[in-house]
Amino acid sequence: MKSSSIRFRGAVSALSSDDRRMLFDRSSARDAKVSSIVSRIIDRVRSEGDSTLLKLARELDGVDLSSLEVPREAVLRARSLVDPTTIQAMERAARNIERVHRAWLPRSAQLEVEPGVTVGRRPDPFSRVGVYAPGGRAAYPSSVLMGAIPARVAGVKEIVLCSPPGESGIPSDSVLAAAAIASVDRVFAIGGAGAIAAMAFGTATVPRVDKIVGPGNAYVAEAKIQLASVVGFDSPAGPSELVVIADDSSNPVTIARELLAQAEHDPRAVVMAVAIGKDVAEKIEAAVLVALQSADRKEIVTESLASSGAIVWVTNEQEAIETANDFAPEHLMIATRNPAAIANRIRNAGTVFLGETSSVAFGDYLTGANHVLPTGGLARCYSGLSTLDFFRWTTFQSVTPVAAKRLAPSTAVFAETEGLSNHAAAARAWEKVP
User: Fold this and answer.
1) How many CB atoms lie within 10 A of CB 16?
2) What are phi and psi of 311, to 5 degrees?
3) Where are the domains of the chain?
4) From 285, 331, 356, 371, active-site residue
5) Exactly one of 265, 330, 356, 371 is catalytic; which is it?
6) 252-263 and 298-308 helices cross at what angle (nearest 10)?
7) 423 has catalytic annotation
8) 273 in Cβ contact with 311 (< 8 Å)
9) Is the pLDDT of residue 1 over 50?
10) Which of 3, 22, 189, 207 has its CA 20 to 30 A from that of 167?
């Protein structure tokens, strides 16, 4: 394949061990400088609360805040300040997100394990959840909808949103409008690690939450790691990822368009085409190079492709499936003759798009599926955000007197084997019941 600005190229089987490790192992060592800065912010918020948050707004966001909380009137007013077509798109997305996530609500279950022994499990929604919506390069109202609506569907009593303040001292109008559409209860103009710490510990103004969800930058991600023993979190999140499996039935121009769309998220975004056949790979690469010439956000896209972009080829579907499962991408598009057949053999992906008409952009905004997804290969063990993330489970069990008498001997044997004589005595007491 001819030289280009794409970092990894060629047959998957021919990648050097170093290239394969760099491409497939996206877990990165924690940045010592970021870790130190975040640790200090967390300590300051824990000890000084609101005063530290106001100082951080000046230090990091360049604004003097008179209040951390955004007035309810400002949140509601934002809907009238955003273009009506944007509001319509948000409302459509909100309806679809609600429909999908309502279908995924968990249900209680119980069974009689043996006569007189009943065990059950009940989902209990969290009382209060925090949603984080990034600022910085751009405003992300979609992240507000993706975090808040599933929580509301789950039955969470109170939803708190934190998002960095703009020059006006409050988050962007689009973020506030999304908060209104998603029925967020309270909004705070707080960003970064300070926002995560505030929701984790609680301050005089910001309430303590049971769980925090939503994407963020390296400082937000680090704060989640450091506060994991204090509050619940969603899956760890890093730069956006896309793998496309393509065969000779796919349109190279469409594949190139999908790759560039995800690459524009971040200079560290990872995009990879896994072509079934060398000729397919060459056509996709040519289409990418053509599309790149007129691409918007060209600097970000070019840097992404140069640092971690890949167009590789395999000889058959099985090798493509193995490659995708090894990579465990955030997004996986299957642009082949029979995408469903391949999808049935995929085990490690945040979300799968079947067919090239199923653009990842649709999933980012409007299909109703969640776009808060595991990255960095963690799709091996994490799932995308859903209503399931807003429940804790209570297990309950009951044993009748007759069943207690029947369970007692075996329970006592276990307890005695482990040297727990009082456990054994508690069980054997039921052997004497008439």
Assistant:
1) 10
2) -130, 110
3) 8-26+239-368, 32-116+125-233, 400-432
4) 331
5) 330
6) 100
7) no
8) yes
9) no
10) 207
Whether the per-residue pLDDT at 235 is higher than 90: the answer is no
Share of the chain above pLDDT 70, in %: 98
Q: Residue 371: which of 362, 380, 382 has the closest Cα?
A: 362
DSSP β-bridge partners for residue 160: 130, 186
Q: Is 188 helix (H, G, I), strand (E, B) or coil?
A: strand
Compute the distance between CA of residue 332 and CA of residue 240 in angstroms, rounded to an integer.
12
Architecture of domain 8-26+239-368: 3-Layer(aba) Sandwich (3.40)
CATH of domain 32-116+125-233: 3.40.50.1980
Mean pLDDT throughout 228-242?
90
Mean pLDDT of 300-325: 95
Burial class (CB in 10 A: 0-12, 13-18, 19+), 106: middle
319 is catalytic: no
Q: Is the pLDDT of residue 118 over 50?
A: yes
- Considering only 111-120, 192-201, 252-261, 425-434, which range has the smallest mean pLDDT? 425-434
Which residue has tokens 């824990």?
A: 46
Q: Are strands 158-162 and 128-132 parallel, antiparallel or unpaired?
A: parallel
What was the pLDDT predicted at 353? 98
Order of all β-strands in the sheet with 128-132: 186-188, 158-162, 128-132, 211-213, 232-233
**Angle at the Cα of 174 from the Cα atoms of 364 and 235, rounded to 5 degrees:** 40
Q: Which two tokens stand for residue 338?
A: 């029979």
| pLDDT of 434 | 77
d(CA 432, CA 413): 16
CB 144 within 8 A of CB 185: no
Instruction: State which amino acid sits at residue 415.
Output: A
78 contacts 176 by C-beta, under 8 angstroms: yes
Q: Across the chain, what does the average pLDDT equal? A: 94
Considering only residues 269 and 238, tell me which one the structure prediction assigns the higher pLDDT: 269
Q: How far apart are the first and last CA of the chain?
A: 83
Give 293's contacts (C-beta < 8 A, 6+ positions apart).
none
Phi, psi of 128 (to 5 degrees): -145, 135
Contact 193, 217 (CB under 8 A): no
Angle subtended by helix axes 72-81 and 173-181, to nearest 10: 110
Provide the pLDDT for residue 3: 47
pLDDT > 90? residue 328: yes
